[in-house]
Amino acid sequence: MLRLMVFIDGSNLYHESDRFSRGIRIDFEKFREVTARGYDLIRSFYYASIPATPTPDQAGFFKKLNYLGFKTRIKTLREVYLNGRREYREKGVDVALATDLVSYGMRKAYDWALVVSGDQDLCDAIEHVQAQGLRVEVLFYRHAMAEELKLLADRYRFLDDLASEIMIPGPGATESPDPASTQT
Length: 184
What we know:
Layout: E1 3-9, H1 10-20, E2 25-26, H2 28-35, E3 40-50, H3 56-67, E4 70-76, E5 78-82, E6 85-89, H4 93-106, E7 112-116, H5 123-131, E8 135-140, H6 147-152, E9 155-158, H7 163-166, E10 167-168
Parallel strand pairs: 1-3, 1-7, 3-4, 7-8, 8-9
Antiparallel strand pairs: 2-10, 5-6
Helix pairs in contact: 4-5
C-alpha cells in the first residue's frame, strides 16, 4: 500500500471554505478518512497562525486536531503597522509547509503527498519533491486553486466534489474557528 502524508494550509483552507459556502466547515475526522482511502496514512499536518494569546475556541480547535492525529504547526501572527494602523499578518505558514513537504520527501517518508492548498507559492517545493521521484496531489477548491498547481501536480482534485462527505453545513455547526479571528 502506498504511504501518504497530508499537508494542510489551514488558514487558506478556512478562508476559502467560507467563500465556497458561508458558514461551512470541514469535519476533519471525515476529511482524514476520505482523503486517506486506499493509502497507508503516515501523518497529517495542519499549518496555521494565531494571535500570541489564542481564544479558548482557537486553542480548543487545535487541541481537537491533535487528538484526531493531526500534527499542528502553529505560527504566531505578526504585528505590522500600515499607514499608521496596527494589523496582524500571517508569516511563515507556507514556508513551514514547504519545508516539511521537502524534508519528509528527501527522507522518502511518503510515496504520495497530499497538499491541501491553492497557493502557487508551493510550486517550487512540489517540483523538488517530484524530482525525488515522489508524487504530489493537490486538493483545494475549484475557485481558489492556482492554475500553476493544476499543471504541476501529478493529480489534482477539488474539495467541492468532496463537500457532501467531509463538510458540516451551517454557522455554529462546528468547533472550527477562524485561526486568525482575533485580528484587529
